[in-house]
Specification:
The chain is mainly α and 127 residues long. It has one domain. The protein has a two-stranded antiparallel ribbon. A hairpin with a 5-residue loop joins strand 1 and strand 2. Helix 2 runs antiparallel to helix 3 and helix 3 crosses helix 4. The radius of gyration is 17 Å and the shape is elongated.
Length: 127
């Protein structure tokens, strides 16, 4: 995996800095969000995306090593499990963050169509 590109779970090459810019734009659209919370949410988002992408890169590497080799699966099975759990935790962080952003958006723009957590998650994950 290169530093500039990462392959997401769906196989699309997406630049990390593009994902961060999209999320930053979403946060800038929330007028009642203070700078400290905005910075914290940016850190949470960036860390979760980087962690998920790193875990996925590790997972694909281990799977390619273990392909059709039961002895390798026996050696690396725990690592595969830990890597999948790491991806799951990062995804859960993104979902929780999406709910926080949704709540902030609801307070920001009363009367407009409400976004669901799934809509926000799709936006911030670049899907």
């Amino acid at each position: 995996m290169s530093d500039q590109f990462a392959t997401d779970v769906f196989g699309a090459d997406i630049r990390l800095d593009e994902k961060v810019k999209i999320f930053e734009k979403i946060l800038k659209g929330i007028n009642n969000l203070d700078d400290k919370k905005r910075a914290l949410w940016m850190d949470i988002y960036t860390n979760a995306v980087v962690d998920r992408q790193s875990a996925y890169a590790n997972y694909t590497q281990i799977v390619s090593i273990c392909a059709d080799k039961s002895s390798e699966w026996a050696v690396h099975g725990r690592t595969v499990t830990a890597t999948l759990e790491r991806m799951q935790k990062a995804t859960e962080q993104l979902i929780k963050l999406a709910v926080l952003v949704e709540n902030a958006q609801e307070k920001n723009k009363p009367g407009e169509k409400e976004l669901t957590p799934d809509d926000i998650f799709r936006k911030i994950s670049g899907n």
